[in-house]
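For practice. Supply one:
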Amino acid sequence: MELHSTLNALTSLDLADDELLYKMLTKYDNAYLSEYRVYCAWLLRNRYGKQPAEYLTGLLLDEETRVHRYTLGLFEKRKIEKELIMSLLAVISQVSTIKPWHLINLIKIFGKRDQFYSQDITKSHGKLIISTLMNLCTYS
C-alpha cells in the first residue's frame, strides 16, 4: 500500500503545473542520490521551453553516468526544441570545460535531426550548429 501511494504521488507530480514542477526540480537537481535526478529527467520528458532546456542540459552533463545516459535516452522519443539547441550550443562553445563523454552525448543530440521540434530549426539555426560542430574538429 505504501509503495502504491508513493507511486501515485510521484506520477501526480507529472501533472503539476510548470511553476510547481520547476520549484521541485530546483531542490533535486543536486540531490545526493542519482535516482532523484533521473526522476527529474523523466518529469521533463514532455516539457519544452527555456527552463526545461536548461535543466535537461544540466542533466546531460551530470557526473553520474546513469543520469546523463537516461537523459540522453529521452531523446529517442522526445522532441528537440530550439531552446535546448541554443543551450547545448552555449555549453559546447565552452568545450575546454566539458568532459569528452558529455561532449559526445551533446553531439549525438544534434545528429537526431528527425527529432527536431520543427524543421524550421534546421533552416534558422543550421549554420550556427554546423559552425559550432566544425570548431570541435580541432578538439583533442
